[in-house]
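As a representative case, we now present a protein record of this kind.
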Amino acid sequence: MPEKEAMLYRILADSRVNCYLCSHRCDIAEADQGLCGTRENRHGKLFTSTYGEVLAARPEPIERSHLYHVMPGTKSFCVAVEGSNLPFTGNRGDEKIGASKEKDRDIRFRDMSPGDLIKGAVEEGCKSIAFVQSEPTLSYEYAFETARLAREEGILNILFTNGYMTPEALRIIAPYLDACSVQIRSSRDDFYRNVCGGNLEPVLECIRAIKRLGIWVEVSTTIKPGLNDGDEDLEGIARFISNLDRNIPWHIARGYSDKGTAEVCMTPLETLWKAYSTGKRERLRYIYIRNILGEKGETTCPHCGKSVIFRRDFLVEKMNLAGSRCSECGQEIAGVFAARPGV
């Protein structure tokens, strides 16, 4: 792919630039990279090093993108890209947290233009295109141009993100963005500082901004033993969602400890159900437990309690909806249940 100048940066003195793609807002010297390792200052201009490079692109059930209320039962053309700006591992220290092309030169990429993605989505009968991994914000220019083309074809656009994009980045892509799945890893700022190398408030503000812009949003939390499984974390996340909108679905995912020990410690089922009960106490209407054997993702009507969507292992087995309403009582189910014209 040809080199691509970045969209979101300011030119500073002494050939430095300020990148405002994500909330790290890196000041980058000439010939240096931002914290993510995917943005490079070349003679006072900022370039992206990942445009058009994908790790994988294939049709998947949309439910795999942590979205249960967007066109359930349809396929999404899922695109995996390189880069991380908010890892969920350990202390960041002073090293770059992303991966430069040189450092990860053994990774096998496929060059695909935005047009290639649209073509693939159409050929596979997908109703949406989802940038899902690692952090799609870092392939912003690529995702933006793909989203514009997808909108012309009536295809929905989705981001599965850690929520660290800036308000400026969100506002620019918002006219072409239909849904976001945003990760909240903790309700404690010290967790974000010590474990992820960032801050909590930009993530929360990103979710608020998504709501203000009228984009559908669902929240996911991967619970890891000994890291973010305490009452303070679970109650804080559930309360934030409830205060913003009780219709926002909360996906509680089973995780595992990654402290380098030989024995892998999975999150106990009791912890997942504790989180579920916490969400119920905060009066959340849609809560799902993920990453467990025989996963059942059932959506029930918040009015009559009848099952309106029954899923098993990401596959929709039964729907009891009339459009976006419960077939039993007529209650509106929050979400995006209609494709754009022509799809």
Summary: The helical segments are 114-123, 140-152, 167-173, 189-196, 201-212, 231-244, 269-281. The radius of gyration is 20 Å.
